[in-house]
Amino acid sequence: MSSKKVEALTAGLMSVLSIIIGFAVGAIFLMAAGLSPAVVYGKLVDSVFGKPKFLVWTLMYASPIMLTGLSVAFSFKTGVFNIGAEGQFVVGALTATFLGIALKLPAGIHAIVCMLGAAAAGFVWSMVVGIMKVKRGIHEVLSFIMFNWLAFYLSNYVVNLEYIHKEGGGEASKDVAETARILFPESMLKATDCTGGNWGILIAIVLAIVVWIVLEKTVLGYNLKAVGANRFAAEFGGIDANKSILTALGISGALSGLGGAVQILGIGGRLAQFAGQEGYGFEGISVALIGSSNPIGCIFSAFFYGAMKYGGTKLSLVKAPAEIVNIIMGCVVFVIAIQAIFKPGFKKLTRKTSKIQ
Amino acid sequence: MNHVSHIDETNVVIAMKDIVKKFGNFTANDHINLTVHKGEVHAILGENGAGKSTLMNVLYGLYKPTSGSIEINGKAVELSGPKHAISLGIGMVHQHFMLIQPFTVTENIVLGVEPAKAGFVVDTKTAKAKVMELSEKYGMAIDPDAKIEDISVGMQQRVEILKVLYRGAQTLILDEPTASLTPQEIDELMEIIDNLTKDGKSVILITHKLKEIKAASDYCTIIRQGKYIDTVKVSEVTENDLAAMMVGREVNFVVEKEEAKPEETVLEIKDLHAIDYRGVEILKGFNLNVRRGEIVGIAGVDGNGQTELVEILTGLKKATGGSVTILGQEMLNKTPKEMFDAGVSSIPADRQKHGLILQFSIEDNLILQHYNEEPFSKKGFLDRKVIRKQATELQEKFDIRPRNSEAKPAIQLSGGNQQKVIIAREVTNNKDLLIAVNPTRGLDVGAIEFVHKYIVEQRDKNKAVLLVSFELDEIMSLSDRIEVIFDGQINGSVSAADADEKELGFMMAGGKKDE
Asked: Is the pTM of this model over 0.80?
């Protein structure tokens, strides 16, 4: 078995282990609250897999965070830390909303234009931070956090502009045109007995595969990863490190921006005024971590996170607090963050098992 | 320098018997014996990765041996950690110093065991007095109030030695102590070692430099691939014997090369000026030219402008003035890529920082300058088959070990093999000028022989070679012409044929050739 495969398998096992630990800790809290973990977790599983339409809802929850997860994973692989996925998501959502309201285009094309616009917005939003980094050495983590808030207030400002704001009250924008939506066609929805359902998941999965190919198979991926791993050696070898950092941040931002568009065009249909940061970008960090920054891993981890988010909304039916999901997710990410403690043992285990096979 | 022995063979201070240390399936130490007497200098010789450091870490209490016994002063001990080892009189001076830069010499020496007034106020006066007493006793002149960041590497080493003496060490382990010292500093260190053993201390010297073993030690234990080979009386063996035992075959020390036949000028540097990171002028009108078919060695003490010179030639640093031409083309202050394209390839001083991307596989490291060119990639996609094929060929040709490790990250290779990856890449680039900076730093004799062979081969292929090295031996054996750099300028030039170590040392310290 190649070392790369061992690495990937170890990472996968690590994620599974952390999820198990997360649920175990969650069970302790449930029991402390006088609830049966079996009942609560049973409900959680049932509310995700119980009916086809539940599954569709899970996928809808998963798609935006799959994109922000990819965005963060891409940044990790290329040696920058995109903690600004939240802000890029917001400017992406805002741009998609604006274009969805303002433009009059045929169905499909309108949606594509909105998504491209959102990706471009995320690209530029992230790039500005990148330019500050390479020109002035300002650490991207600091500027990203500030840019998240800039995006937040910018969005709330724009939503309240007369041209954008919903007529006749309500704390949101107008609805985007039907032509800009990316919903499943009626016939498909009827077949699965769904109320929602959109193409976002497909877009996200395709992009996950594209990102994987870019990172693993292309010259661009080599270049970006080289700078991420050791910018000195890369520069010494003739690579323009600053250009690579900007490219990496731009692509990462575009993915988050697209996540915002998928949320608006697929689920919301309009942009609400925020009371607080919505967290899609930050959830992307968790998705990337659980997926061990592997684009393909992000597909699974986003599905898991989506399932937890969606399943969590139904826990009140068994009188369990929805926050239990946050406890579980917190533990999962915590265990992944401290995985250095278990990793050597796990690697050994992976090698042994692969030898037996 | 002749070694005067102070060994007391009746008094064994350390006896390590049948030490085995396994890491998983890997046996780093396989039944190794080591006996050290009072007043002895005992060298431990072995290639990179032979298991010398593992053995010393066992003795220092950092690793628990898998099996085997350790006796200190005739008593069997089971070391629980470095603290325990220190309490039994063992002290270790690491290759990479562990000093706090903004602290003074005294502060560093007493750190952790400060004499205190009223239980908590550091008694600087007593501390200083004790430090001075030790430094005088062993002939290690030092300024107790100087800050570490202001003193030379040789002085820093003294601080490290004083640190372990201050903690009551009877046996001092010196790990590659001469790696970064100038020839003068090495002589001084040898004197210090002599003073220590005269006083009844024992010294364990880890090194791959045979000359120093011959010059300073009584006994030498040879380890090869984790196995105990032999312990020999140094006065009874030759350097060649030692090398053969270490490597397992005969080693050729003399770099075999024909006389150089220099042709057209490839690199010409005129009146080059540059400032260092502190903003102080470090190159002050530097002139040099290197022609095809010759190896020009730059000898000099670290900090006289070599680093900046190489950085300018490889495009990493901007000069403030002057001219650099490659084959007649002005190339001052270009990017690394432009320098490379103009015909400069280089073996950088810091292989892990500038030479390799450690997380990348060996095959990916081998295409660092060509990943976006055919045949390694087409239309933006890497061609893995071609990349693998080249890596396999280069692994074979340059003896990069272990074989079939094309897809393994470079971080898993030993230092010598990492260096071979860089050399394979840079030699394959086939550029007109090769710049080699400390190309054999930290390598064992087998690997050194190999690296030297390829550098000479480049010259014989009619390339120009610029060698910058702090190893005077390397400069003298490899160069055709030696230029001495001092204070940002060339201080003199000698043909390698009639170079003399003393004279070069004198010039490196600023003396003029004919004075």
From this structure: no
